[in-house]
Amino acid sequence: QAYNCLIHFYKRTMNVTLEFGGGAELLFDKKKKYEVTLPTQPEKWTLQLLLFWMRDNLLKERPELFLKDNSVRPGILVLVNDSDWELLGQLEYQLEEGDNVVFISTLHGG
After folding, report:
1. Per-residue pLDDT tens over the stretch 2-36
2. Torsion of CA 79, 104, 68, 65, to 10 degrees
3. What CA–CA distance (Å, rounded) separates 78 from 91?
4. How far apart are CA 83 and CA 91, in angstroms?
């Protein structure tokens, strides 16, 4: 019985908030904020897996402007709960229930 409970604990969905600014929202249907429920999966959700999920489920156009080589393009600032993702392990950071992930484009055409 306890074994069953443990499996259920690790295989639950996860709710996170995604926010976009600086023009990044233009690639995501012009929406600045999404409340998403990530599906159940065997391994823990990392920022890397989140980026793939976003590409497949939210990114509306021109993925090359958001992603490059399995990460965000240079010039896109990523914050998790107001902390720079570079301090958190970047792609390896393991998401937690209720995390707020912000993507801000610092690239502006001229």
Report:
1. 444 444 455 578 999 999 999 999 999 999 999 99
2. 160
3. 10
4. 14
